[in-house]
Amino acid sequence: MSPVTHFFTGWVLGSVVGSNKRERAIVTLAAVAPDLDGLGIIPELLTRHSQHPLLWFSQYHHDLHSLLFAVVVSFCAFFLAGRSWTPAIFAFVSFHLHLVEDLLGSRGPDGFQWPIPYLFPFSNRWTWSWSGQWALNSWPNVALTIALISVSLWIAIRWESSPVEIFSVSADRAVVCTLRKRFQGGQASRLEN
Question: What is the reported pLDDT for 138?
């Protein structure tokens, strides 16, 4: 699935289980973390016409989709959350939701199914794949993304925090106030007071 879908999956989970901005951000970013290996597309594209192209995306994408990296992300979450286990546990869950989403819907346009090497680098025995995996641009992925964005909008209106808070508190306030005015007929937000 797309990084946007993973981001909103993490945000929705983080909003339900996170008690503050930091915890919500930690759980959200844990849902996106497995795709850090996707950054290999940049050197691959930049060197594709050279004599020695760097095939970092083609060869290594999904290598961070592993139990080892989930544990690393969870320990980072533990320390970023001030040595709190709750955000670390939900970061672990959020990371695994990413894996499930990829297992369900990340087939490429050429029909290639990205397997998930769960025990990498220790073993290749437990590599996940599913023959029914739908295409990355298929309607179930689009529907899931729309549903997650809709839930995120509802959370922003109801609980007065949006995914924008990860990047800017003032921009988050503006987004929440605008949404509340639009969908609640001008009802004041605690953020405006």
Answer: 93
